[in-house]
Amino acid sequence: MKGDNMGTYQGKVEFEGLSQGQKCIDLSIPAIPEYVSVVRLTASVIANRIGFDFEEIEDIKVAVSEACNNVVVHSKKEDNFDIRFISESERIGITVKDNGNGFDLAEYTSPDLKNPSDHGLGIFVIKSLMDRVEVNSSKESGTEIKMYKNLL
Amino acid sequence: MSLSIEKKYREDKDFWDVKITGEVDIYTSDKIRDTLNEMIKEKISEIQIDCKELSYIDSSGLGVFIGILKKLKEEDKNLVVLNARSNILKLLSITGLDKVFVIREN
């Protein structure tokens, strides 16, 4: 990688504790585009194990990638960021958390079809594809996107 | 992860015949952007993208298509998405982009 500081691990972020019946898989990846596919493939395997069908797995892959794309665009490139997958018998939960500078949630409204833009689609897509989504962003603690999808 | 792009200008019908195979994400979308931009620099014509073998795309790839469409629209040309799989059609419908691009089967 050119000998710079890529992939420096800045210390683990804190996730909430687990409830009974929840299993977790944690990943930490560099905040650069090359590694987003690692998260996508991991999501695919975990969702498959829970029992989601092909189409639902595709939706989960897109949703988690959008959250990672958001981190890659907004956070400091030399940092890693963290992803926690929560596997339950009938639900998948995914939290994507960075130590970046946050972003203005007010910017992320529904897409304007009359004037399509190549920015700001990500959060909207996640909300459309997943059953529950929580986004917290601040300058101090960075951004956390939590998303859940239920097995129907 | 692999991505390949085949392109050919079809002189008889005046359009770019493009086929994308593989995954378009935040990493591979630069390659698509560069290729499409080179094409319209060479000749600004309708672009037809065959998505039959496109297994994955997200907003970073769709953003590239939007950027290219804006340039095409200056010359009143379209971007046509051909043979997209159901997961991709769903994404186009959620984002409203099915009304922005021309969506077709052939």
Describe the structure.
The complex is a heterodimer of chains A (152) and B (106). By secondary structure, chain A is an alpha+beta fold. Chain A has one domain (23-150): Histidine kinase-like ATPase, C-terminal domain (Heat Shock Protein 90), CATH 3.30.565.10. Chain A has helices spanning 36-50, 54-74, 121-129, and strands at residues 23-30, 80-87, 91-97, 132-138, 142-150. In chain A, strands 1-2-3-5-4 form a five-stranded antiparallel beta sheet, with helices on one face. In chain A, strand 4 and strand 5 form a beta hairpin. In chain A, helix 1 packs antiparallel against helix 2 and helix 2 runs antiparallel to helix 3 (121-129). The radius of gyration of chain A is 15 Å and the shape is globular. The mean pLDDT of chain A is 84. Chain B is an alpha/beta fold. Chain B has one domain (3-104): STAS domain (Transcription Regulator spoIIAA). Chain B is 36% helix and 32% strand. Chain B has helices spanning 29-42, 59-73, 86-94; strands spanning 3-10, 15-24, 46-50, 54-57, 79-82, 102-104. In chain B, strands 1, 2, 3, 4, 5 and 6 form a six-stranded mixed beta sheet that branches. In chain B, helix 1 (29-42) packs parallel to helix 2 (59-73). Classes of the chains: A alpha+beta (152), B alpha/beta (106).
